[in-house]
Design brief:
Layout (H helix, E strand, L loop, with lengths): L2 H4 L6 E3 L6 E3 L3 H21 L4 E4 L7 H14 L6 E4 L2 E4 L9 H8 L11 E2 L10 H14 L5 E4 L21 E4 L2 H6 L1 H4 L8 E4 L2 H5 L3 E6 L5 H9 L17 E5 L1 H4 L1 H6 L1
Parallel strand pairs: 2-11, 3-4, 3-7, 4-6, 7-10, 10-11
Antiparallel strand pairs: 1-2, 5-9, 8-9
Length: 271
């Protein structure tokens, strides 16, 4: 699947001023439905060839519409997820999978509990891994991705400071899956979920930037006016470790899917 295929829907505006292909959809709902259909097209193509589909997924408010549409496609149109292998790139640390703020229950309630992905084909990092075992745990997690054939399509959001997964500003382009320190603005943005910033973990297990770049295709979803400033830097600025997502300018097949609020000054540049 190529960027040209992803950009083929007539009801999106393709922005010409960006260094990474960028589609702007009229509403967040339209953006979510579009990404869901990109995922569904890949699954159907692989199912027809009797090969697995290896997805990298993400959590948060941004991809909720995508998951709702994928569930609808499964229930109403028979989209078969039985050959899907799903990997989640991050989890708060330390964090029990049973904790309400964990990514585990979030993914199950929004997606996994509603489609037919076999349990053994779902891999989510465990934030309760003992600290002295984290390095070997991360190495084995990435080895499992490699055994699956590598991630074919990685869906991600983007933080207000440009982080992707939990690779905060200053992360090395060569970074591997690890425990990473969370930036103050990242913790502030999730304070509501934890009942106060003082309750937000200070670290997270995360794919490294090199692990993200290994995906064959990356789709970044960014919705709302709070993402406008960082998108301008990522999509029109220079590649710099101070803005982690900017490295995607060098990825062979990345596309940004945004709404008008997130576009900000990008639309003015396209005018």
């Amino acid at each position: 699947m190529t960027v040209d295929h992803v950009s083929s829907r007539e009801w999106a505006q393709r922005l010409s001023s960006t260094k990474i292909p960028t589609l702007m959809f009229p509403t967040p709902a339209d953006a979510g439905v579009h990404v869901a259909h990109v995922v569904a097209d890949l699954i159907r193509e692989n199912n027809a060839a009797s090969v697995p589909t290896v997805l990298g997924l993400t959590t948060g408010a941004t991809p909720v519409g995508m998951y709702h549409e994928l569930v609808r496609l499964h229930r109403e149109e028979g989209l078969d997820f039985s050959k899907v292998m799903a990997f989640l790139p991050d989890e708060y640390f330390p964090m029990s999978p049973d904790c309400p703020q964990s990514n585990h229950p979030w993914m199950r309630s929004h997606f996994f509990d509603h489609v037919n992905i076999p349990e053994e084909q779902i891999q989510m990092p465990r934030g309760d891994t003992p600290l002295n075992e984290v390095q070997s745990y991360c190495e084995e997690f990435i080895a499992a991705v490699d055994r699956a054939g590598g991630i074919q399509l990685q869906i991600l959001g983007i933080g207000r400071n440009g982080h992707i997964s939990f690779n905060e500003p200053g992360s090395s382009w060569h970074s591997q899956m690890r425990v990473a320190k969370l930036a103050p603005e990242t913790r502030a943005d999730t304070a509501g979920v934890f009942g106060g910033e003082e309750n937000v973990p200070r670290q997270a297990l995360t794919f490294g930037i090199s692990n993200i770049l290994a995906a064959r295709q990356v789709i970044i979803m960014a919705l709302g006016h709070r993402k406008a400033e960082i998108l301008s830097r990522v999509l029109t600025g220079e590649v710099t470790e101070a803005v982690p997502a900017s490295i995607l300018q060098r990825h062979r097949n990345t596309i940004f899917v945004i709404d008008p609020a997130a576009a900000g000054s990008l639309v003015d540049q396209d005018a």
